[in-house]
Design goal:
globular; mainly alpha; about 75% helix
Length: about 525
């Protein structure tokens, strides 16, 4: 109860003028990066990471929450209007949103997506506030062997949820290898430096994050078909919305039903708690569930507002869920929270139960900032800037990406004051670019970079305390529990993924048959 009161007290900090300024900056940066295809909220936080060195941690986390919430939501804007999801989380939104756009209901679809995102984000933030104290109590009971098994569980689950698991394992192995460069954490010896004094301190976390996400993404975007981008811009120029068109009627909201909003929010939150699941899975599961219980499943695939609302509500509710394992256990729920974990580590803060017990007053404003960001979606999107969102797509591509490249490289230097680290970031960016082109995911890489050192530390500490006896991981109940949970997920998740893929394939086949019948 005391922790909940401390979190609620964080409201006073968030409503200070400087806090609101940072929250607003983060919110609008998230809108821009989320709406532009190819850019994501994750990339936005990556670019902001070096800037956080010069500001208090509370303001940095408040700004990250604004980016996180608005970045997940704004992917729906281009998904609905030009059928290109601005973020992977908006993939299911394309299915229902763009056909509505083609029938002249694009503004109404964006309005429903906004309301769903605001409700889902607010419920997810409230669940975070009231559930995290319980998670902390459970986390305090986990001892060192259990912490190793927990991180092992997270790393394995992150690989399992990827479609290309072999490639995910290889990128994760690369991340773990790079995280071991530098001084040994338990002994005063250097390792894998190859006699280079620049590597004695290891590869900076900011260097790895910016190289793997920002620089590699710039290389990817530079190879995108310019003709396709011009076509996308011309479509955006042709779209014009009036402000009144954004507001759904109460009759439409009653048809969707309050149960759809609540159930989708809880679904998104629970999926967010699972390491590596992310917003895309939350949106897909919620969409499929909405179709399963719908009285008119034949409408799905172009005329189901409840399907769009279910996906968007779950996407933003996921934000609150993904922060629970990151803050209480140090295990990121998705790629964006992995970067936020990097922000904390830049300040020398290691997330875990001790942090939330001893420094809750520092973290409380972050909780409230997430809730306020969700609440801002409605007035800002529906009343103020909704009709102007598509102007974001019209930003000159060359100017945009050259600016991001400059910020990325200068960001590495600002964080490390090392030209060598700048070269390393560029090299990692090139390597990750070629890996991406071959279908290798980058999220397992960065999670391995962050969790790898902790995994090694807990493994070696446990073996030291047990005089080298590996049975310590079996004889401790908490460690055994996570090992059994790892085995269960390794068996059950692939089956669930196969069933989801089969169901999605079946739904697409049904939609194609319906289209042929209409023709």
């Amino acid at each position: 109860m005391d922790q909940i009161l401390q979190i609620l007290a964080g409201t006073t900090v968030v409503f200070q003028p400087l806090s609101l300024l940072y929250l607003s900056i983060g919110f609008f940066i998230g809108i821009i990066f989320g709406a532009l295809p190819g850019l994501t909220s994750m990339l936005a936080i990556v670019l902001l990471l070096p800037m956080t060195y010069t500001m208090p941690m509370t303001y940095a986390l408040i700004m990250c929450m604004g980016v996180y919430m608005s970045g997940i939501y704004s992917g729906s804007i281009t998904a609905i209007t030009i059928n290109i999801p601005g973020a992977p989380s908006a993939l299911m939104t394309c299915i229902e949103g763009h056909p509505m756009m083609q029938r002249g209901k694009g503004a109404k679809a964006i309005g429903h997506a906004t309301i769903g995102s605001a409700i889902g984000g607010a419920i997810g933030a409230l669940l975070l506030i009231f559930v995290s104290p319980l998670a902390v109590k459970l986390a305090l009971k986990i001892r060192t062997p259990g912490k190793f098994s927990l991180i092992l569980f997270a790393l394995i689950v992150i690989v399992i949820v990827e479609k290309k698991r072999t490639k995910a394992i290889l990128t994760m192995a690369l991340g773990i290898m790079l995280s071991t460069v530098g001084m040994d954490p338990l002994k005063s010896v250097s390792r894998f430096t190859f006699g280079n004094p620049n590597l004695i301190e290891g590869i900076d976390l900011t260097t790895l994050i910016i190289g793997a996400f920002a620089i590699s993404e710039l290389f990817v975007q530079s190879t995108v078909n310019n003709e396709k981008y011009r076509e996308m811009t011309s479509i955006a120029n042709a779209v014009k919305f009036k402000r009144k068109e954004f507001f759904p009627s109460l009759h439409e909201m009653r048809e969707i039903g309050w149960l759809t909003y609540v159930k989708s929010a809880f679904t998104g939150y629970i999926i967010g708690v699972l390491p590596g699941a992310g917003a895309s899975m939350a949106g897909f599961v919620s969409y499929v569930e909405a179709k399963r219980v719908s009285k008119h499943p034949e409408r799905f695939g172009g005329d189901a507002m409840d399907g769009l609302v279910a996906a968007e509500t779950a996407n933003n509710a996921m934000c609150g869920g993904a922060l629970v394992p990151m803050l209480s256990l140090g295990i990121p729920g998705d790629g964006t929270t992995a970067i936020i974990l990097g922000v904390l580590m830049v300040y020398g803060v290691v997330p875990g139960p001790d942090l939330l017990v001893k420094q809750m007053h520092v973290m409380a404003p972050m909780y409230m900032a997430l809730f306020i960001s969700a609440a801002l979606l409605l007035p800002i999107s529906l009343f103020l800037f909704g009709p102007y969102y598509l102007k974001i797509v019209r930003i000159n591509r060359l100017v945009l990406y050259s600016t991001i490249a400059l910020i990325a490289i200068l960001g590495v230097f600002a964080a490390t004051y090392s030209a060598f680290q700048m070269g390393v970031a560029l090299a990692i960016g090139i390597v990750m670019y070629f890996l991406k082109k071959q279908g290798y995911p980058n999220v397992p890489f960065i999670l391995a970079v962050i969790l790898g050192p902790l995994c090694e530390q807990y493994l070696r500490t446990s073996l030291t305390l047990s005089s080298g006896n590996p049975m310590v991981f079996i004889t401790n109940f908490d460690s055994l529990f996570f090992l059994l949970l790892t085995v269960a997920f390794a068996i059950l998740l692939p089956r669930a993924n196969r069933r989801a893929a089969e169901l999605e394939k079946k739904n697409r086949a049904m939609d194609e048959n319906n289209d042929q019948e209409e023709l």
